[in-house]
Design a protein that fits this description.
alpha/beta; 3 helices; 7 strands; 34% helix
Length: 112
């Protein structure tokens, strides 16, 4: 299912906020493949912040190669983003994962 314009607006706003600072530290932002070795799964994050040298020529990176992984929920993927992806990113060494929950607009919850 293609992303909605509302979703793209949210992701674009986050990318814009991160991109300028990332370049100053020799990081790049993107939404490339994140491999989960030993698993039949791989994910395409909504946004990942990775060191520029690691991204150069890389087909896929490991979650442990990222400084930040961002997932923004949509109606079609909210539960996998909230539960499965969050746990898998942690299992594979992502340093920080930000979940932008666009459906749950209540108070901020700490998720481990």
């Amino acid at each position: 299912m293609s992303p909605t314009w509302d979703y793209e607006t949210t992701a674009g706003t986050i990318r814009d906020q991160i991109r300028a600072r990332a370049r100053g530290f020799d990081y790049v932002t993107g939404s490339g493949n994140l491999d989960l070795p030993g698993s039949s799964n791989w994910y395409v994050s909504d946004i990942a912040l990775v060191p520029a040298p690691a991204a150069k020529g890389a087909g896929a990176l490991l979650p442990s190669d990222t400084l930040l992984v961002v997932e923004a929920t949509s109606e079609s993927n909210a539960e996998p983003d909230r539960v499965v992806k969050r746990r898998r990113y942690a299992e594979y060494g992502a340093q920080l994962c930000l979940l932008v929950d666009r459906q749950e607009r209540g108070p901020v919850r700490r998720v481990v």
